[in-house]
Amino acid sequence: xxxxxxxxxxxxxxxxxxxxxxxxxxxxxxxxxxxxxxxxxxxxxxxxxxxxxxxxxxxxxxxxxxxxxxxxxxxxxxxxxxxxxxxxxxxxxxxxxxxxxxxxxxxxxxxxxxxxxxxxxxxxxxxxxxxxxxxxxxxxxxxxxxxxxxxxxxxxxxxxxxxxxxxxxxxxxxxxxxxxxxxxxxxxxxxxxxxxxxxxxxxxxxxxxxxxxxxxxxxxxxx
Length: 223
Known about the structure:
Layout: E1 7-8, H1 19-32, E2 34-37, H2 43-58, E3 63-64, E4 83-86, H3 94-114, E5 118-128, E6 134-137, E7 147-154, E8 167-170, E9 179-182, E10 189-193, E11 199-201, E12 208-217
Parallel strand pairs: 1-2
Antiparallel strand pairs: 2-10, 3-4, 4-5, 5-12, 6-11, 7-10, 7-12, 8-9, 8-11
């Protein structure tokens, strides 16, 4: 198991995405290809997004998550059993709009420093009921390489390691025993290069909440 965890703690009072702050975790992305940012947004913002997610859950807006895309999309409970609700920027609530605007600023910062050519951000809210999971996978569809940078923001309240639900990132593609497990603490953001890191979501003992998104590049096949 890899013992090096590039966690970046921030004590900026309003936790804004200022230049100095973003440069620190962009440097980590450039160095090892992934990073963890604690307190990416304030507890109040976390609570607002969590309330937004739970309201959508109560209204029945979540659906079982599948794998693949287009005609190849299918439900595969042996692979994943979470529930998702895709975010529509045109119908975003204030908490979701705030988050999407923050991701737009992050996209610009990453492009300015790493020249990844990111053009858009897509995301869904995710709920993992107790015992659900997502087996080892890459965040790219077969034959489609537009998903470039994955971003996961956790919305859990008072999450403890014994609650399970860790994100396991495999840090060495040649050795499956080298990985890092990340506890889904509320306000924690995880960023990693989508095509580079296999990862999985371990089963949790309580409901696990978050927003999962991908910064995409342009599909050159349709340019």
